[in-house]
Design brief:
Number of helices: 6
Order of helices and strands: HHHHHH
Strand content: under 5%
Number of domains: 1
Number of strands: 0
Structural class: mainly alpha
Shape: globular
Largest sheet: none
Distance between the termini: 11 Å
Helix content: over 70%
Radius of gyration: 17 Å
Amino acid sequence: MKKKIFRLSVILLHIFIPLTIGGLIYVLFRTEDLLMFRWFESAGISGAVKAMRTSFLVSDFRYPYWLVFCLPNALWIYSLTSYLILMWKDDKAKLFWFTLGPAIGIASEVMQINGLFPGTFDGMDLAFTAVFSLIPFATIRPFRKEM
């Protein structure tokens, strides 16, 4: 039972919480031109989303650039890499799976330079993605045997 609780704690802390925080940052602080806002409209929850945004958007306060534009992607890559490390702990092809998260994050950012991937290249975004894709190797791997 302790092992299951420990595993659930690790999954919540390293996968679900970072994903939720990254998603909330997008919902609360990014422009409403993004596709997800049309999804909210279709799902009938745009009123609730607008109410949340209104409570967090203070006109005279500027959130740091890195928080709004770099941290969400970095948190998603962190979650993906954490998930892959947990999922493929005993697989013989684990090196491929362990590096998939960092490769996707870094490649998608670099591909934006030549327009091969949607978005705008940002060196700070690339740095955040690279660092956050490596953190799970230090935070998750030591606990894998206990899970």
